[in-house]
Here is the input.
Amino acid sequence: MTEAAEMARPRVALLDRERIANAALAIVDETGDFTVPAIARALNVQTSSLYHHVDGRAGVIELLREKVVDAMDYDQLHRIDQRPWQEVLACFARSYREAFAAHPHIVPILATTTVRAPLVISAYERVIAMLHEAGFPERDSLAMVTALENFIIGSALDLAAPPVMWEIPEAAEAPELAKALEAVPRDAERAERADRAFEAGLAALLAGFTESLPSR
Amino acid sequence: MTEAAEMARPRVALLDRERIANAALAIVDETGDFTVPAIARALNVQTSSLYHHVDGRAGVIELLREKVVDAMDYDQLHRIDQRPWQEVLACFARSYREAFAAHPHIVPILATTTVRAPLVISAYERVIAMLHEAGFPERDSLAMVTALENFIIGSALDLAAPPVMWEIPEAAEAPELAKALEAVPRDAERAERADRAFEAGLAALLAGFTESLPSR
DNA sequence: ACCTGAACACCGTTCAAGT
DNA sequence: ACCTGAACACCGTTCAAGT
Here is the structure.
């Protein structure tokens, strides 16, 4: 008998940051949010045990952010080659959004805190350099990247939004909107609608940026 | 002596939804979030008293949403006249974002819940109709409006983000990004940077939409 | 170093009791 | 109808005690 329930310091650690991250992510995916005690329950551990590995709730949020950042595809930014900058930006945006799309409920949790992962920093670094080379002044390029990122985050939030985005109350008369909504997939195909909006916006943004290129 | 502290049902009501909404908004503006007990304290009332006027925390969030919605300017959508649709969309987007800009911390709180105010519904209604008249098929117009809204929400979130968006750790080598960040106002003028990004994105989106107009 | 169990302050919500 | 006060379940965090 190992009396596992009573042991104060087990021979092999029960916890580590990765197990905590995975449990947290699973709970977020299921319930839309997480709780420190819920993580502990999922790992058959006391709540206070988590504090030996992670700096409380804020620390768990950092873990979740790392998870998302790791899911992004940065390789494409390495071989920028001769591909046009529009294409690189589009890939960047899609991979960014897809990393969130895999875990939509994570977006609202991360939305308010700072990006500080070195990987992300250097990704931005490359994008800015690329835009500079394409002929955009630095001031503009930063505004462009920020605008693109804002669009991506907003689009990711859209994925986490409740199923019916626009509840039409009987009171309001909205025949045109109703028609537009009818002409659109519902429930399970909601993601498709979100995808279409994302691609429409991305295409428009890139077209607009291209038009604003000074050297034209 | 009125023994106010003991009275169970005061002659004049101490609370109403508007006072609750105002208190909540003030707390959100100050602290970045609100708490039901905090509202009660601000109004010199017992926490449980609030539940006679509002459906708990979720109800308070609805009140906050109404506050924001009321702050938007819909008049411009009434007299669509002969103004080009791009101009109308731009006004719409700016007024939408400005309503959030007045209370940035409100954005993360509202970001996940559904829009159902009739005023908002009918505003979308008019925009969709206008785009249809301009020559866009309904399917496209809905994607466009959604994309624009996502961009606006993302830009509004940007306003609520912590002051230093991109912390550059010493480890990461990011000279170009650093230069771009240097060329930009800091601290108090952060709003200006956000504004620039917003205007850049808005202009690009509208230019891109215009380019995609089928009847060209 | 790593886990437990007890403890604390705090939040969201309910409900009987009063006027 | 409207406010109070007590009560409950739950969360985030700390810390001494054990191995």
